[in-house]
Amino acid sequence: MADLYSQLGVARGASEADIKKAYRKLAKELHPDRNKDNPKAAERFAEVTQAYDILTDKAKRAQYDRGEIDESGNPRSPFGFGQGGARPGTGASGFARGPGGMEFDAGEADLSEIFEGLFGGNSRRSGGFSGFGSRRQAPPAKGADVGYRLAVAFEDAAALKDQRVVLSGGKTVDIKLPKGVEDGTKIRLGGQGQQGPGGTGDAIVTIAISPHRFFTRDGDNVRLDLPVTLDEAVLGAKVRVPTVDGPVMLSVPKGSTSGKVLRLKGKGFHAKNGQRGDQLVTLMIDAPSDDAELNQFIEGWSRKGKGNPRAGMGV
Length: 315
What we know:
- The protein contains nine helices and 13 strands.
- By secondary structure, it is of the alpha+beta class.
- Among the domains are: 1-85, DnaJ domain (Helix Hairpins); 215-301, Urease metallochaperone UreE, N-terminal domain (HSP40/DNAj peptide-binding domain).
- It has a four-stranded mixed sheet.
- α2 packs antiparallel against α3 (39-55).
- The longest helix has 17 residues, at 39-55.
- The chain is elongated, with a radius of gyration of 27 Å.
- The model is unreliable at 79-134 (pLDDT under 50).
């Protein structure tokens, strides 16, 4: 598997902002909704999302840079075992296939048999050797955690709508999105992992917020470029505007210009403190390209000497 930085097209010393910018660009290009007939794009999307998850987690990025974990986030074996490819039964990314095409972390290989061969005896029962050669009983091992990646619609993430996860055994679980949710947020489902002699592991669900075709996220705010007609901008109007909670009416002030930003309170993402961001609407005047009546009016209007709006710029 290619180096994580190469997968995102950034340098090894790239800042978190550069990594996020590169990921957003690739996610828009490779998102499965835009490449329904291209399975390779879906595989690539999964790879860059996994690279993004690791490189935006400070602890994991440090481990990766030190060579302690591989491109799938799995520990590198100190004896060289298990490297150079995915485990049997897993995909190229190291994630096994679950119900409905969902991918989940297949867990780590059990190295107990390797240590038995090196040191003799049963390491599972003995728990290894102490500093003076005496043995002590280790507690039974808990089952492995299982990782899942859940794609969440942009609007659902902003509104904190409940999501449904299909676990590897076919069981469905409804989860609540936490306040402050963002790409890479992890949700732990206790007791939903693999069985073990010391108990059941957990399910770790990593949230991947899907890009939207006209909304963008700016911290806890949502931004939208809104086309308006020339007469709506000049004369003022009430227009319908899409929001993450559904369409609302917005008053466009008389004499508005392109680039004017209007604010819809409480139509953004939920912050960790419970407060909700706003939707920032940027007006974009959509002038008709070929309207004879409008052209005739503008020609007569412009000859009245309206001044130079760029005079303050020295041009």
